[in-house]
Amino acid sequence: MTTPDPMAEIRASFFVECDELLEAMQDGLQALEDGTDDAETIHVVFRAVHSIKGGAGAFGLEALVRFSHHYESVLDRVRSGELAVDIDLLKHFFRAADHLSDLVRANRDGTEIPSSAGDAILAEMDAHIGAGVPPDEVEPEIEFQPLGLALDLDLDLPALDDLPPAPQFKICFAPDAEMFETGNDVFPILRSLAALGTCDIQCDTARVPALSDIVPETSYLSWTILLTSEVDEAEVASVFEFVEGLCKLSIERLAGSDTTDNPTPPPVSDQVSEPLPEPETDSAEPEQAPQRATPAAARSVVRVDLDRIERLVNLVGELVINQAMLAQSLQGAGLSPHSDAMNGLEEFQRLTRDIQDSVMMIRAQPVKPLFQRMSRIVREASAAVNKDVRLITDGDATEVDKTVIERLADPLTHMIRNAVDHGLEPTHERVANGKDAQGRVTLSAAHRSGRVIIEVSDDGGGINRPRVLQIAMDKGLIPTDATLSDSEIDNLLFLPGFSTADTVSDLSGRGVGMDVVRTAIQSLGGRISITSTPGLGTNFSISLPLTLAVLDGMVIEVADETLVLPLNVVAETVTLSAETLDAIQPGLDVVRVRDGLVPLFDLGYLLGYRARKDSYVDGVALLITHDDGSLGALVVDEIQDQRQVVIKGLDDTLYRAPGIAAATILGDGQIALIVDPSDIIARAGEPPHAKSQKIRMES
Predict the structure, then answer these.
(1) Per the domain annotation, does 293 fall within a domain?
(2) Residue 530 covered by a domain
(3) Which of 94, 254, 543, 579 is 20 to 30 A from 108, comparing alpha carbons?
(4) CATH code at 25?
(5) Phi and psi dihedrals of 403, rounded to 5?
(6) What is the CATH number of the domain that holds 650?
(7) In 125-274, where do the E strands start and end?
(8) How many alpha carbons lie under 13 Å from residue 148 in its C-beta half-sphere?
């Protein structure tokens, strides 16, 4: 059995931490762009960059350290009040943040990014603020000296006599042997402390034994550091966050080092300098020194490989199938509903549902990281077409299945680029039309009717329908004499090969775009729709299932075929009668539901299973709720049951019929299709499938 590499595991954990820090950095920059320029927001951004730099230094990632150090230096000038944050500086900060993300990913994946890209970003930022910090700046070198010899770091700072008293910290630091075993080292930590201010570093060698008595695995050295800096205690402590629990550490703010006018000395930290214990030479775990106080206990988090979660999800799916098979067997045995076996089955079903819900919660993740990636797409796309565009996000805390999030990135990228390139007018046109010069693209997510709805909208000129219609005719995509409604014209954008771009660019014009988007959305069991108002903008709405694993379904029968409908779209069931049925025109029936008329659709006919019925009297209809709140009625032959079903994707070699989302295995081993009723109703005007295209799944 292969022994895991501790260094590789720690390195992987570092990059996971980097993702969280990058997310916090983007949140802070977004808050600054929204007008929140308080000190805490700026400090959040600074801390994120500083923490990435500290961790990168521990792993010797020089390019990442160099870029983040320069970026951090500029942020520090903002934090100290030397620089004011304006819109142009924010643009530089966003570009630097994007490059920092690229560097993190490149180091994680073992790829390289030319240093010239980062140098250009830093040079532009320095030119904007009038700074002269060279991109190849190196941090001060540190020499270790025995106890009693003060260390002069020569940081080119003004003489202390010329400055008001600055806070001073006494730091006692003694590494445990485990710290070195995990690949950490003392030098990067001391170097990070030196970057915070003036340091007097003393190394205590008193516990180093005679050469013949040295145990190689034992740590004998400790350090006492006097740090004079304007930073707060939390920032000093952050230098040690990657070795927390792997060392003896105390941080004491010395009395009389406050810079305020308050004559009362500030309260001393809960961390008190204590004599460092003698090193342990046996296998017993050394007692940990008191750590810095935290305002609240953080939640424990365990990071699990995604493959393990996927295996757990698959096992839960098999459990659901076996539970359905057991239920069907017991029901077929004719047992009393009050028998012990049936009561046990009911409890088993409840436990199965609880397990399934818990597993789905593990897979669920907020869409926030995905939305943050789209912010970068907007910045790059707007720069490419020379437009001033702002992305507004809403509902980024909405949780979706992780698989859905991963497969949604490419479709959203297409849509965002199209909104910037095609949806928004050039700046001069917007101003001429009385609009704000800055275009707005809105990206939102919300849970609705058991599904997740993601919308991409812009405040541009809307779809130019006459031009779209003419292009479709010129390309031979539709007959030249076709008469289409506004909605049908809008949906021409999804035809393969359709493009309104006059020239080919990095953003568009290759005829590959919205058709790819629709295909990708449909592969997720979703659907996409368009609404557009001339002069006001366009909205694309994506409706997706919350999970790709298990759903609550209604099992129905149509023309001797067993089908499953998602239960969350079924509003109610209706028994049809002569009094409630009416025909507006041949082939268009409606059913009267309370005070309204709902269009009636024959599911068996639309799927090509049979001809249209002559009469629907005494039939059963399911009222289907659409994403926009409207209703449609589907005629079915029989309702069999309501149960949880496991979603099984259809192989690419199978015929992809409209309205068929996936398949499932029922309790008796029969394969049943899972239908998307909204898609079927939306396509009701199309000719039904021919008999040769009839979809039947045999077990």
Answers:
(1) no
(2) yes
(3) 94
(4) 1.20.120.160
(5) -60, -40
(6) 2.40.50.180
(7) 168-175, 198-204, 222-228, 247-253
(8) 2
- What is the separation, in whole angstroms, between the first and last Cα of the chain? 41
Same domain, yes or no, for 530 and 578? no
Which strands, in side-by-side order, build the sheet including 631-636? 570-575, 620-625, 631-636, 596-602, 588-593, 581-585
- 242-290 pLDDT tens trace: 788 888 899 988 865 554 444 433 333 334 334 444 444 444 444 444 4
- Does the pLDDT value for residue 499 go beyond 90? no
Judge whether 592 and 575 are in contact, CB under 8 Å.
no
H helices present in 233-367, as ranges: 233-238, 306-332, 340-363
Per-residue pLDDT reduced to its tens digit, 331-364: 778 777 778 888 888 888 888 778 877 877 777 8
Same-domain status, 525 and 562: no
Q: Tokens 């924010």: give the residue.
A: 90
- Residue the block writes with tokens 């991409």: 456
Q: Taking the CA atoms of the chain, what radius of gyration do you get in angstroms? A: 33
Tell me the three state secondary structure of residue 255: coil
**Closest alpha carbon to 56 in 659, 265, 48, 447:** 48
Rounded CA separation 624/677 (Å): 7
Q: Specify which residues 446 forms β-bridges with.
A: 453
pLDDT in tens, 154-210: 444 444 445 456 688 899 999 988 887 766 778 878 888 888 888 888 888 888 888
- How far apart CA 429 and CA 427 sit, in angstroms, is 5
Tokens found for residue 436: 């704000």
Render the burial of 315-352: b for 16+ CB within 10 Å, e for the rest: ebbebbbebbebbbeeeeeeeeeeeeebeebeeebeeb
Q: Are residues 561 and 681 in the same domain?
A: yes
Q: How far is CA 138 from the centre of its chain?
A: 35
Residues 500-530, buried b or exposed e (16+ Cβ, 10 A)? beeeeeebbeeeebbbebbebbbebbbbbbb
Asked if 352 and 460 sit in the same domain, the reply is no
Distances (CA, A) of 386 to 208, 380, 405: 65, 10, 30
Alpha-carbon distance 78 to 40, whole Å? 12
| CA nearest neighbour of 322 among 16, 670, 668 | 668
Provide the domain limits for residue 532.
369-545
Q: Residue 463 in contact with residue 538, Cβ under 8 Å?
A: yes
Q: What letter represents residue 231's amino acid?
A: V
**Which one is predicted more confidently, 549 or 532?**
532
Q: How many domains does the chain have?
A: 5
Continuous segment of H or E residues that includes residue 414:
helix 402-418
Q: Are residues 54 and 189 in the same domain?
A: no
Instruction: Answer yes or no: are the C-beta atoms of 430 and 439 closer than 8 Å.
Output: yes
Alpha helices in 209-305 (DSSP H): 233-238
Find tokens 């003694």 and name the residue.
Answer: 174
Q: Are residues 513 and 419 in the same domain?
A: yes
